[in-house]
What does this fold into?
Amino acid sequence: MIVVPESAVAGLIDAQTAFAAVEAVFTAMAQDEARNFPVIREALGGGRQYGFKSGIDTAGQVMGVKSGGYFPGNAARGLINHQSVILLFDPETGRPTAMVGGNLLTALRTAAASAISIDRLARGDARVLGIVGAGHQAAFQLRAAARVRPWDRVIAWNYHPDMLPALGAVAADLGLPFEAVSLDGLRAADVVITITSSPAASVMAAHVSPGTHLACMGTDTKGKQEVDPALLAAATVFTDEVAQSVTIGEAQHAVGLGLLDAGAITPLGAVLTGAHPGRTRTDEITLFDGTGVALQDLAVAQAVVRAAQAAGLSTEVTL
Ligand code: NAD
It folds into this structure.
């Protein structure tokens, strides 16, 4: 078994590789060559969550699991709140083949999914990027969005405003003007990324202009919520995987309230294969419900293992 510690991951993968790996696996899912197994994610109390996301990608010849969760007390201990590890197995024999640190990979694969949705679904003339959230993932989201579109400026709102200057520093690093706005101010955005651990909707329908693309990335567990269910009712809704979208994603609320039919939600992979046209009108609100699927984790972990092997940096452990 090859072991790639968290500390080595950054040197073995970049945002472009993560983007390509996630695009490939979303396509494989749409072609029924890859599937995610049911997610186990349990609340531990005190906002802590722990679980398992697993799946198999026949096209990519990989099977495995990401185990980890969200521990909101970590920041005060100098740790990031998300903690995880990814285990890969040979899909033919079941032999464990690799163990890879999952923290940076989670951020990269989540930002890649959001960026793919922006690339494919935002209007061609989108120039103002809105971000709701300013925690660990938000910086990765901003950097990934900057790779796929030319932004004139970034506007942002966060429940904890004191966290916004750190996100502003990322925008400055990218050479983008940055402004903290009220929720009403989000109406100026052409694309809005939401990436918070919020338990209730912050972004209401009145905060979003016609023609906006929303990438809702924070809701990955029952009970979390970032946007008004009325927005999902008004939008054309896309997701990474419908089964997760309606149970642990943002759509859990709109579907539960009877405002959205699960059958009306389209996997983003169908847009990648051309089976769905994506956006069809400039005034259409498109919304990507990014719940985070195991296959994203496996795809980026596999890319890291290949890079480690190619560079002669892999550490072999016999179990
Ligand atoms: P973080 O702890 O670093 O930041 C949390 C963010 O949520 C901050 O912006 C904070 O101000 C905001 N927030 C906290 N309490 C809030 C409240 N009551 N109302 C509104 N906002 C509140 O977390 P992170 O690592 O940046 O992750 C953000 C979210 O993204 C988490 O919910 C995490 O589980 C989720 N996530 C999703 C995926 C995916 O694939 N969809 C992947 C990774 C993380």
Remarks:
- The first strand starts at residue 2 and ends at 4.
- Residues 222 and 247 are 7 Å apart (CA to CA).
- DSSP finds ten helices and 16 strands in the chain.
- Residues 70, 72, 81-82, 106, 110, 133-138, 158-160, 163, 195-199, 202, 217-218, 220, 224, 290-292 surround nicotinamide-adenine-dinucleotide (CB under 6 Å).
